[in-house]
Design goal:
Helix content is 38%, strand content 13%. By secondary structure, it is an alpha+beta fold. The termini are far apart.
Length: 199
């Protein structure tokens, strides 16, 4: 049926993305393409709209798969509203603290990543949703305190539908993936070190 065909196409496209990304991200080679996809069928139990399928598809490529709680690359495919991005959205409290801690101790490295020409050109800056006050446990006079106020560590870049109009679509996306590689690696290092405690 239509759902099965759409899903098969999406799995195939995801496999292409994984192949391309695996050259610079060894952890990608062990991922199952289907485990990187968000469901495209909707939960219609409590909705007036009984359309069975979403009009968008989401692909999240992260160490351990989409449900592992790590930062990763994200591709959103939707007519008129497609975008590519990455990072970690709405992390759990312990993970958020670990990321803030990593930035606190290695702020120069993080700022260098954010200021890298390819990163700035493709993504500008992170999604700007921040706390009004400094997060608990960190000194308010820290010189880069604004970086610690972020609630999410996410970037995105809009894509036109022409991106997906030929068989080289996966290759066209590679520069966007590469541009955020260091950003995602920094976040995942923080998550991996989440047992460390601030003095």
């Amino acid at each position: 049926d239509q759902y099965k065909l759409a899903r098969e196409e999406l799995v195939g496209f995801t496999a292409e993305l994984l192949e391309i990304l695996s050259h610079s991200n060894p952890w990608v080679s062990v991922l199952n393409p289907s485990k990187c996809l968000y469901r495209i069928n909707r939960d219609i139990r409590f909705s007036n709209d009984k359309t069975p399928y979403k009009t968008a598809a989401g692909i999240f490529i992260a160490p351990g798969g989409r449900s592992a709680g790590n930062a990763g690359y994200y591709l959103h495919i939707e007519p008129g509203d497609s975008f590519i991005g990455g990072g970690i959205y709405a992390p759990q409290a312990a993970v958020l603290r670990a990321i803030r801690q990593e930035i606190y101790f290695n702020s120069d490295s993080f700022i260098q990543i954010l200021n890298a020409p390819a990163f700035k050109e493709n993504f500008g800056q992170m999604m700007d949703e921040r706390l009004k006050r400094p997060p608990k446990g960190f000194p308010a006079d820290f010189k880069h305190i604004e970086l610690l106020k972020y609630k999410h560590f996410v970037v995105s870049h809009p894509l036109g539908q022409e991106t997906f109009s030929d068989k080289k679509a996966a290759g066209k996306l590679l520069p966007f993936f590469k541009a955020q590689g260091d950003f995602i690696a920094f976040l995942n290092k923080a998550i991996a070190n989440s047992e460390e405690i601030l003095p």
